[in-house]
Design goal:
The complex is a heterodimer of chains A (211) and B (332). Chain A is an alpha/beta fold and 211 residues long. Helices cover 39% and strands 14% of the residues of chain A. Chain B is mostly helical and 332 residues long. The chains are: A alpha/beta (211), B mainly alpha (332). Chains A and B meet through loops of A and α3 and α4 of B.
Chain lengths: 211, 332
């Protein structure tokens, strides 16, 4: 109930549209997207059909989402986030990859941001290897690229109030798993390209375009 | 909506829409669901909704009308700023614009505090916007960014708000009937759009500005504009004007509507887009529908004022409760 309402409000505020029903083929999906705003995973989450939304968990930074009662409640109750520590010492201790695999094992889909952190400029940075680790352990995963547009303008890094602008979440076709002999770096570059490809025909012109 | 003449106007529009829906259905039955016809059906359905919401706002009285236009300005500005590439440095400025400048402008309009309404955006907001952006410290393309926001606020908020302001225009012998004047302006301007589109499709040959708006043709403007002027003249009984003046005012609305659409189309294309958004199925964004009203509203408002020699400035200078509040505060 809370999540249906919240998803509706997120779609209303950002202009993101609800996806049509996805096929329920028993395969686990991992949505991976560019990252520029705190709204990012909420937008992907809100765009999913209710059935999928209920079983989709974002992978998010533990340091941020464990702070304060509201964030804790949102991350644990509403989004059921898989919290990954940024701190290296903690990371070694908690095994982030194991946490993600466990969530997939339980039948959840994941939302990940392979850049690792929000980009300041709206550009898509290099991808961290987590995505490759996931697909190596679980070759049956469906990797869905998502391009998030304009969200860095709605709620940029470091701002508290969102602007009422329109954003978009463009879902792409699943990415083929690493081919035989494809190195980690090449695969990650291919994954990043898959996200960038979706930015063509986007909502807004590039910022350096004169008018 | 106690005015029977207003009901006639609404009834007339409903009748026209009924015919349009019927014709669309017959066409689709005859030649199947071609893209053009599906778009036509979407457009007609959207007209029903727009008509319903517009009429309900009138039925709710002043509060309803001003609330409706506040929302329209908000949606229009949202589309405008979404398409204008504003960088990080403008974030806080825009927060103020959306959540303070816009609502306060409509509050002054609704009050009505005419003096403040007139200068709130052109003076106070226009001074505030560059100050706040300068404080954010980003000098890159500063003038361009500032003017973009100012132009957006001017058109989407200031110009648009002249439509509900028509409710307050004091016209001798027309007291309490101003809702019809608002209906007249919106009706003639929108019908002019539709007529220009239809006549342009039927007879259009010479494009007026192919780069700016490929669908605007000289034939469409001439025939469509004439048709809209005729319809406007035929509605003279609902306006405070005698027939001849109603014809002139309708022609004025056609011209202002045409140029408003043309200019907003040029702005849209300079931003690299075909439509302002996708809020209204078949039409595009909210601004795609409002563009012709942006210039028509303020021009019609002021020329009607001159015609009747009415003085908004003296009748709605400053609400007495503000004077009282100020007096109490200054002299405790």
């Amino acid at each position: 109930m809370t999540s249906t309402l919240l998803a509706f409000l997120v779609r209303l505020a950002t202009g993101v549209r609800l996806l049509h029903d996805l096929p329920e083929d028993g395969k686990r999906r991992v949505y991976f997207a560019n990252h520029s705003s705190h709204l990012d995973f909420m937008v992907i989450w809100a765009a999913l059909p209710a059935l999928q939304r209920a079983s989709t968990r974002p992978v998010a930074a533990a340091e941020y989402w464990e702070k304060g009662p509201l964030r804790k409640w949102l991350s644990s109750r509403v989004f059921k986030a898989v919290l990954i520590p940024r701190d290296l010492a903690r990371m070694r201790h908690e095994d982030p990859l194991g946490k993600m695999l466990a969530a997939l094992e339980e039948g959840s889909d994941l939302i990940v941001f392979p850049e690792g952190t929000r980009s300041d400029s709206g550009e898509v940075g290099p991808f961290k290897p987590g995505l490759h680790h996931l697909i190596s352990k679980r070759p049956d995963l469906v990797l869905v690229p998502v391009f998030l547009e304009n969200l860095s303008r709605i709620l940029p890094k470091g701002e508290l109030f969102p602007l009422p602008l329109m954003g978009q979440a463009v879902f792409g076709h699943p990415l083929a798993p690493p081919a035989d002999g494809e190195t980690k770096a090449v695969f990650l570059e291919r994954a990043r390209d898959a996200v960038l490809q979706l930015s063509r025909g986007h909502l807004t012109p590039l910022p350096d375009e004169g008018s | 909506m106690k005015d029977p003449e207003l009901l006639y106007l609404v009834g007339g529009v409903v009748a026209v829409l009924l015919i349009a829906s019927l014709v669309t259905r017959l066409l689709i039955r005859k030649s199947g669901e071609t893209p053009v016809l599906v778009n036509l059906r979407q457009r007609v359905n959207a007209w029903w909704w727009m008509m319903l919401i517009f009429s309900s706002s009138l039925a709710l009285g002043r509060g309803g009308v001003f609330g409706f236009y506040t929302l329209l300005s908000f949606l229009a500005l949202r589309e405008f700023i979404t398409l204008s590439p504003t960088p990080r440095g403008d974030h806080r400025t825009l927060t103020w614009v959306f959540f303070l400048i816009l609502p306060l402008h409509y509050l002054f309009a609704w009050a009505p505090w005419y003096g403040m309404y007139l200068i709130w955006i052109p003076v106070y907001a226009f001074v505030f916007i560059p100050i706040r952006s300068a404080l954010a410290g980003d000098t890159d393309r500063f003038l361009e960014r500032t003017s973009r926001i100012q132009w957006g606020v001017l058109t989407c908020v200031y110009f648009l708000s002249h439509l509900p302001m028509l409710l307050y225009l004091p016209i001798p012998g027309y007291e309490g009937q101003n809702a019809k004047l608002l209906f007249f302006v919106v009706l003639v301007t929108q019908i002019s759009d539709v007529m220009q589109y239809i006549f342009g499709k039927l007879f259009g040959k010479t494009k007026i500005a192919p780069k700016v708006s490929p669908s605007k043709t000289r034939e469409g403007l001439l025939y469509g504009g004439a048709a809209a002027t005729l319809i406007g003249t035929g509605l003279w009984w609902a306006t405070p004007f005698p027939p001849l003046a109603a014809a002139a005012m309708s022609a004025l609305l056609v011209a202002a509507g045409f140029f408003g659409g043309l200019v907003m189309s040029a702005v849209k294309r300079s931003l690299g887009a075909k439509d302002w958004g996708c809020g209204i199925p078949g039409h595009g964004g909210v601004l795609d529908r409002l563009d012709s009203l942006l210039f028509a509203g303020p021009i019609f408002f002021h020329i009607t004022g001159y015609y009747f020699g009415t003085h908004m400035a003296s009748s709605h200078a400053q609400p007495t409760w503000i004077k009282e509040a100020l007096r109490l505060w200054m002299a405790p």
